[in-house]
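chitinase
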Amino acid sequence: MSRKRWRLLALAAAGLTTAGMLAGPVSASENEGTASAPSASAAGVRLGYFVNWGVYQRNYHVKNIHTSGSAEKLTHINYAFGNVTNGQCQIGDAYADYDKFYDAASSVDGQPDTWDQGALRGNFNQLRKLKQMYPHLKILYSFGGWTWSSGFGEAAKNPEAFAESCYRLVEDPRWADVFDGIDIDWEYPNACGDTCDDSGPEAFANLMRALRNRFGPDNLVTAAITADASPGGKIDAADYAAAAQYVDWYNVMTYDFFGAWEAQGPTAPHSPLTSYDGIPTQGFNSDAAIQKLKGKGIPADKLLLGIGFYGRGWTGVSQSAPGGSASGPAPGTYEQGIEDYKVLKTKCPPTGQGAGTPNANG
């Protein structure tokens, strides 16, 4: 995801072609003694992100997953984010993750946290309680993201040591029962995101192979990957096809193609499904991304289409069609240029009533 500071989204279990439609067996590793992913499929996966920073300004807690009715609809949750520093997986926010006290009113099950020595608190304990209420839920610990991807280059120098550090953190006895696997959100291997990486096209596959070997076949291993299908773009920068055998699925970040980080535009939908006349950058749409990844040999049933649960916009736009200029980012509740779905849904027209193409907020 190109601008993931406020990542609140769900991932549908489908690409432009439905995931599972072109199901095929997961290829075995060519390297003797190297584990590959079980014959898993992304079909039926309904995954959402829970971000640890949401407990602050947004006041969104694990209990809200329950009270909103989302828990019974989701199959998987990615907990975001853990950090990557000095070639190792690290806790992202110790207070929010496992120390924040939840009283009876704010706790998932109505039972307050305890200050007993060694007791688990924070989001991890709330996620544990959520899983007890919804045994079908699987939770993955997601590492990296837009802000914390600079450490992957160092990790790629010794993938086995990195994988060992991640395993020890995810399987820490204090919360080993909370997580069912690991998700890697490297933005971007052998390309530029918030920082630039020059690890080479093979680095990503080497990292995912080491993680699969360490986590084994009984844990989920997934990755969020770029949707930049432009010629010579980020999909071409790393060998995602070689790494596919080690992952259960890829979360394709088919959102944030355009946004008000370019304050003067060009204005355009941030998550277009297909291309359209006047699109500012060719290959910046969901269909192009899925087709390009499939064309590189990645099975369709390993591709999850990303859906951003937020909107992006500008103010002072010059035209209603895509490709116009703007005077700056649109106002937002938490940040200029972006608005959460929970806010937007109170402003949208009733179901069935058209509102035009949401290219930009003028």
